[in-house]
Amino acid sequence: MPAKKNSATPAKFALRLTATLGKEAKQSAAREGVSLNQFINLAVAEKVEYLENEAWIARRRPPTQGRIDKATALLHREGGQPPAANDIIPDSYKTWEREQMRNSRRRAS
Fold first, then answer.
1. What pLDDT, in 10s, does the model give residues 67-99?
2. Does a structural domain hold residue 107?
3. Do the domain assignments include residue 9?
4. Contact between 29 and 35 (Cβ < 8 Å)
């Protein structure tokens, strides 16, 4: 059976850090209230997640104006039911939307 990506079986690695980085890592782990091992494990996990996210973003189709227009039309379509009493667009968003429309008109001209 293939190993799972997040297998609970720990792997051991000899890790060499510069004295300064090791000291900073120990202090940071202490501030976080975790062991140095747990701190390094989390740091590696965050870096791996970041790199995977960057790769995913690179593979995505770039947004085109057509796709943006379709999404906007979908968001502004009429629904099948009347809005609930508390289902309103906040005034702050309406102000932001008007500002966006003004800015897009300025850029177009």
1. 999 999 988 888 777 778 888 777 777 788 888
2. no
3. no
4. yes
DSSP 41-106: HHHHHHHHHHHHHHHHHHHSPPP-HHHHHHHHHHHHSPPSSPPPTT----HHHHHHHHHHHHHHHH
**Structural domain span for residue 70:** 17-75
Number of domains composing the chain: 1
Residue 17 near residue 25 (C-beta atoms within 8 A): yes
Q: Pick from 46, 18, 19: which is nearest to 32 by CA?
A: 46
Residue 63 lies in a domain: yes
CB 4 within 8 A of CB 15: no
Q: How many CA within 13 A on the CB side of residue 75? A: 7
pTM more than 0.85: no
